[in-house]
Every structure is written in structure tokens, then in C-alpha cells.
Automatic annotation (TrEMBL):
KW 4Fe-4S (keyword) present: no
Species whose genome carries this gene: Sedimentitalea xiamensis
Subcellular location(s) of the protein: Periplasm
Pfam families hit by this protein: DctP
Stated name of the protein: TRAP transporter substrate-binding protein
Main location: periplasm
Annotated signal sequence range: 1-21
């Protein structure tokens, strides 16, 4: 009996021991050429190097492991190890993260990067293990949001009733409802054909994908509005993270944070180039500011000040960083 008890105890201790080596799986919704996907691949390569080959990362882009809601569930159970995910999806579970989508929180892409690197933004990650079952290591970006329309847009009233493709999260839904549009959630791979065949009238998108994936080919108007940030967060399953040694926790978190953060510099450098490219595609282009959206911004603020306690502090931080 004593030998059996000793063996059982040893087995339990072994099962609870930190994982010495692991082949991690990292999911994204972005296509292979996207900045986020490239950053994920660079993270995997550096982790393999720094760990002496003990760890590797298999990157699964383009929703190969499911949409973001499905991947977040997998992270919570430990079925998925890591993800580079929109803060949008996390905000569906942790409404306070919706504060990042305050209209015109950021003046430009460089200002957005500064906000996401702030102590205020980093502090908002602390609740994720308890509230979402994930560890957030830092923020990246997908640039600022623009509107591409099949028809002519001269004033905000022209958007009323239009089916506008959006990423499905409450902060975005509330914004487009406030301007009278019909927000239409749709996965990224379906967007090009949907705009081409008229399934949607317009899309909410960043300049990288408007340019690189040529969404402008089936549009008449590109509205450069920069109306909303669209941050990304590097996530590790809290269950997986708990099974790592302290050394591996520090190394993995540091390297992931480094490569997630690198996307902020990439967008700061490339967004003007993508914007300039779009100026030359033969479509009507208009540049508008907060005044274009009229009362919609105030309506959004009223809803989200109640939902996102960090919004006033984030607005204050953003103002100080101008």
C-alpha cells in the first residue's frame, strides 16, 4: 500500500509539474499576408530560437481554428494556447475593453500607438485572467477605421439605412446604430464578394485591407474618417500559462509582447503609404472628422460611459498624449 501511495503521489506531482517543452498553437482571423500574421510568425521564430528549440509556435491564420468567439472559448478551456485577437472580441466578454473604441479617441495612428502603450491601457489587461480566462501580454493595432461605400456619401445621412459590414462587437454596433445604418456582422473572408454582389452597401475597414485586398474595386466612395481605433491584444490561455515554469512565463510573455507591439510601429510607418495608394485608385475620396457624424458620437459616449468604467481615464490619458 505504501508503495502504491508513493507512486500515486509521484504521479500527481508529475502531472502538476510545469511543462518543460511545448509546441504551441496560435490562432488569428487575419490572412497570411497581414501584419498581425507576420508578427505572429516572427514571434514563433524568436521563441524557438530563445528557448533553444524547446518551444515552437504553429501559426493558424485566416480563421483556420474558428472565428474569434470560438477561439476565445478554446483559449478559456486550454484547447488553444495563444491568439492575436481583436480587442473587439474580448470586449464582448469584458465590456470595459470597449472603451478603446470611443470615437475619435485617437487623432491619428501615432497617437493610437501611444495610447495603447500607456499605463492606463496596460492596466486594463489585469482583469483578463479572472474575467475572460486569458492572459493579455500587450497591444497591437490594425490601424484606424474608414468607410468604403458602393454609393456616393456626402453627409452622415447618406449612411442611414445602409447595410454596413462590421466586426461584430457591441461598441461598433452601437456606433453604427447611432448614425442610423444597418450594421451587418460578417467574417473577413466573405467581405470582398459581399461588397461585389451588393450583399452589403458599405464596409467598415482599415486602410491596409482596403488597399491590399482591393476592397475599393467594388466601391464608389472611400471615406477617410479615422473614426475609431481597432486594437489587437496578444493572448495566452490562462490554463496553459499556469502550467508553464516561471522562466517560460517570463520569456513567452516578453517575446509575445515585443512582436505584438511591433505592429504599432508597422502601422505608424505604413498607414500613410496605404492611404496614399488609395488616393490613386480612381474612386471618390473624402476626408471627414468628428463633426461629420453629428449627434452619433454623443449617443455612443452616453451608452459606453456606463458600460466601460475605464473610459474617462482613457480619454484623459489620450488628451495628455496629444
Amino acid at each position: 500500500m505504501k508503495d502504491f501511495a508513493a507512486a500515486a503521489t509521484a504521479g500527481l506531482l508529475l502531472a502538476a509539474a510545469p511543462v518543460a517543452a511545448k509546441d504551441f498553437r496560435l490562432g488569428l482571423i487575419t490572412p497570411p499576408p497581414h501584419v498581425w500574421t507576420k508578427a505572429a510568425e516572427a514571434f514563433g521564430a524568436e521563441l524557438a530560437e530563445k528557448s533553444g528549440g524547446a518551444h515552437s509556435v504553429a501559426v493558424f491564420p485566416a480563421q483556420q481554428l474558428g472565428n474569434e468567439a470560438e477561439m476565445l472559448q478554446q483559449l478559456q478551456t486550454g484547447a488553444l494556447d495563444m491568439a492575436f485577437m481583436t480587442v473587439a472580441e474580448v470586449s464582448n466578454r469584458v465590456p470595459d475593453m470597449g472603451a478603446f473604441y470611443a470615437p475619435y479617441l485617437a487623432e491619428n495612428i501615432g497617437h493610437a500607438a501611444a495610447i495603447l502603450r500607456s499605463d492606463t491601457a496596460r492596466g486594463m489587461l489585469e482583469v483578463l485572467p479572472q474575467e475572460a480566462g486569458v492572459v493579455g501580454v500587450g497591444y497591437g493595432s490594425a490601424g484606424l477605421r474608414q468607410i468604403v461605400s458602393r454609393g456616393e456619401i456626402n453627409e452622415v445621412g447618406d449612411l442611414s439605412g445602409l447595410k454596413i459590414r462590421i466586426t461584430p462587437f457591441d461598441a461598433n454596433l452601437d456606433f453604427y446604430k447611432a448614425i442610423g445604418a444597418a450594421p451587418t456582422p460578417m467574417p473577413l473572408p466573405a467581405v470582398y464578394d459581399a461588397l461585389a454582389n451588393g450583399q452589403v452597401d458599405a464596409i467598415d475597414m482599415d486602410v491596409e485591407l482596403i488597399d491590399v485586398l482591393k476592397y475599393y474595386e467594388h466601391a464608389d466612395t472611400i471615406l477617410f474618417s479615422n473614426h475609431m481605433m481597432f486594437p489587437m491584444v496578444g493572448l495566452i490561455s490562462a490554463r496553459v500559462y499556469a502550467g508553464l515554469s516561471d522562466e517560460d512565463k517570463a520569456m513567452i510573455a516578453e517575446l509575445m509582447a515585443k512582436h505584438v507591439d511591433s505592429t504599432l510601429d508597422t502601422y505608424t510607418a505604413k498607414e500613410p503609404v496605404w492611404t496614399e495608394n488609395l488616393m490613386g485608385v480612381g474612386k471618390t475620396t473624402k476626408t471627414v472628422g468628428a463633426e461629420f457624424f453629428g449627434d452619433a458620437i454623443g449617443q455612443w459616449e452616453e451608452i459606453w460611459t456606463a458600460k466601460a468604467p475605464s473610459l474617462p481615464a482613457l480619454r484623459e490619458t489620450a488628451a495628455a498624449l496629444k
